[in-house]
User: Fold this.
Amino acid sequence: MIVRLNGTHGAGKTTTSALVQQLIPDSRVFDAEKVGETLMDITPGLPGTDNFQHWPPWRPLVVETARRVLDYTGGILVMPMTVLVEQYWREISSGLARHDIPVRHFVLHADQDTLRGRIQGDTVLGPSSFRLAHLEPYAEAARTWLHSEAEVVDTTHLTPAEAAREIAGSVKN
Assistant:
């Protein structure tokens, strides 16, 4: 099984995924952004883009990597991954379904002011114009398709540990 943690930057996916992994036996964290980073390291570089998710190989490589890891280890993969383009979500979801991999999709949500504050106050990554630029696309995806495709966990007033307990409890039931 895959436990997908979606949501925009600043929602708490990375922190929460590590905590979810600790609460679910036989689980591992697979950060699909690492697949994008691998593609970014190809030299000479792939065609220019402002987001590696726009490269057509990224989506099937995420599916194939997840499938191969699950074939090798079994258990559950906890995947923190911001996917705000519905077509990309559908490609990844249908790819996993073709391999009979069940997915529990959670969106970590917070209001815009909270997200902006988290991004601007991030002591690890620092303020990021890239991350701030995704707030409106997230809001649009949430309004149009994303929230209807997932179990929404509002993290506005939750600690990452509280969100992780909610997600793990839902997965275990």
In short: The chain has a mean pLDDT of 94. The first strand starts at residue 2 and ends at 6. The radius of gyration is 16 Å. Residues 65 and 71 are 10 Å apart (CA to CA).
